[in-house]
């Protein structure tokens, strides 16, 4: 590891799925042992990138079960000028982790992040009925608690269990298979591209001049005229007034292509702001 290697900010503690995603991004950049900056929230990840404390940040963008991560969307829309440089899909496989010497019958309490507990309800009802549950700040924190107390079981990934020295008692305990989270690699505004690909995705944040009938239809029409097929559209409150919304839009096209530039230029004449969050290879 050299002093010139980039630093990756991520949502800690060590062993979270965001940590896993950060290491995956680093591996794609040819970095085997990345320098990692642990952050307490996605807000702190964005702030670390914007203030130049690190070159890259890794944030969760969307989960296949829970949908978009609103903390990430709000940072892109209202707080940060950071740009999306790439995306990485991480398969979410929850494990029941125990103290190395503990058995299942020793468990009196199950600890994990709220989503970890919610996504393993069936397993807990069948295998650990009646046990108390405790919400932790992350799934990785639950692995640390399990190591400290033989009566506590954690719900975390196998990476966290190995990192903290806990034992994986059961694997793939989630209720729904196919659970995946899409993570974004972010950099400061103007950061050059770091990945190349055959297919690209572009993410936008669109802010209206005024809220009037037909505005959404007008936006969609500009993309339809340009032959651009949208893959995601989502409204979010602007936090200015009740009923005042903006839109996030994604499509699988390069922002530098002529049809996309034409559509964006037309929208800039009609909207208050068209914010390009990034144009990057599809995961």
Plain-language structure description:
The chain is an alpha/beta fold. It has helices at 17-28, 42-50, 70-79, 114-118, 121-127, 139-148, 158-164, 215-225, 258-270, and strands spanning 7-11, 35-39, 56-63, 67-68, 83-91, 95-98, 109-112, 132-135, 152-156, 167-170, 180-187, 200-207, 230-237, 245-251, 273-281. A hairpin with a 3-residue loop joins strand 3 (56-63) and strand 4. The longest helix has 13 residues, at 258-270. The model has no long low-confidence stretch (mean pLDDT 93).
Descriptive keywords:
alpha/beta; six-stranded mixed β-sheet; 15 strands
- The value of Rg in angstroms is 21 Å
Number of DSSP-assigned strands? 15
Instruction: Kindly report the average pLDDT value.
Output: 93
Low-confidence stretches: none
How much helix, percentage-wise, in residues?
25-40%
Beta-strand share of residues: 25-35%
What is the SS-derived class? alpha/beta
Separation of the first and last Cα atoms: 27 Å
> Could you spell the SSE succession in H and E letters?
EHEHEEHEEEHHEHEHEEEHEEHE
Specify the number of helices: 9
Sum up the overall morphology in one term: elongated
Q: Report the major sheet.
A: 6 strands, mixed
List the helices and strands and how they pair.
Blueprint: E1 7-11, H1 17-28, E2 35-39, H2 42-50, E3 56-63, E4 67-68, H3 70-79, E5 83-91, E6 95-98, E7 109-112, H4 114-118, H5 121-127, E8 132-135, H6 139-148, E9 152-156, H7 158-164, E10 167-170, E11 180-187, E12 200-207, H8 215-225, E13 230-237, E14 245-251, H9 258-270, E15 273-281
Parallel strand pairs: 1-2, 1-3, 7-8, 7-9
Antiparallel strand pairs: 3-4, 3-11, 5-11, 6-9, 6-10, 12-14, 12-15, 13-14
Helix pairs in contact: 8-9
């Amino acid at each position: 590891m050299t002093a010139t290697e980039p630093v990756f900010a991520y949502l800690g503690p060590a062993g979270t799925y965001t940590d896993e995603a950060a290491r995956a991004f680093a591996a794609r950049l040819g970095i085997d042992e990345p320098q990692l900056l642990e952050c307490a929230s996605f807000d702190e990840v964005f702030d670390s990138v914007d203030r130049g404390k690190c070159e890259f940040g890794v944030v969760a963008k969307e989960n296949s079960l829970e949908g978009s991560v609103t903390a990430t969307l709000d940072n892109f829309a209202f707080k940060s000028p950071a740009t999306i440089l790439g995306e990485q899909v991480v398969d979410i496989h929850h494990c029941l982790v125990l103290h190395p010497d503990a058995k299942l019958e020793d468990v009196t309490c199950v600890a994990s992040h709220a989503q970890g507990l919610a996504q393993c309800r069936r397993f807990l009802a069948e295998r650990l009925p009646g046990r108390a549950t405790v919400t932790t700040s992350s799934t990785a924190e639950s692995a640390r608690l399990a190591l400290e107390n033989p009566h506590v079981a954690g719900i975390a990934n196998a990476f966290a269990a190995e990192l903290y020295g806990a034992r994986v008692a059961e694997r793939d305990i989630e209720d729904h298979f196919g659970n995946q989270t899409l993570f974004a690699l972010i950099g400061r505004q103007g950061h050059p591209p770091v990945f190349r690909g055959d297919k690209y995705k572009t993410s936008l944040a669109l802010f209206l001049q005024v809220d009037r009938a037909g505005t959404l239809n007008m936006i969609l029409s500009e993309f339809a005229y340009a032959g651009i097929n949208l893959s995601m559209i989502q409204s979010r409150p602007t936090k200015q007034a009740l009923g005042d919304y903006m839109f996030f839009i994604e499509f699988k096209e390069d922002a530098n292509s002529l049809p996309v530039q034409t559509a964006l230029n037309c929208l800039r004449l009609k909207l208050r702001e068209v914010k390009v969050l990034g144009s990057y290879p599809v995961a």
